[in-house]
Specification:
By secondary structure, this protein is mainly alpha-helical. The protein folds into 2 domains: 1-46, no CATH class; 48-82. It is built from 3 helices and no strands. The chain has helices at residues 4-16, 26-43, 49-81. α1 (4-16) packs across α2. The termini are far apart. The mean pLDDT is 84.
């Protein structure tokens, strides 16, 4: 899940941009906004930057191995044709 500090920052920024008359309700709104933002982000099935970078590295290694295997198959096919 996302860092709680990020969610707090998002909800704080949203409440700070409210008109002055509504800022009296800031604490209640901030709790509700945080809950709503957290719920919306949870439904998005997001991953952390670290998880993304790990999967990106795995994909790069897989592509490299595939390229090597394709070259090897081409060599074997060429040798079989001779």
């Amino acid at each position: 899940m996302l860092d709680p500090k990020i969610l707090d920052d998002i909800s704080r920024r949203m409440t700070e941009n409210l008109p002055r008359g509504l800022q009296d309700l800031q604490d209640d709104l901030q709790r509700n906004l945080r809950s709503g933002v957290e719920s919306a982000l949870a439904r998005m099935n997001l991953v952390t930057r670290e998880e993304f970078e790990i999967q990106q590295a795995v994909l790069q290694r897989t592509r490299s191995k595939l390229k090597d295997l394709e070259a090897r198959v081409a060599e074997l096919e060429a040798a079989a044709d001779d």
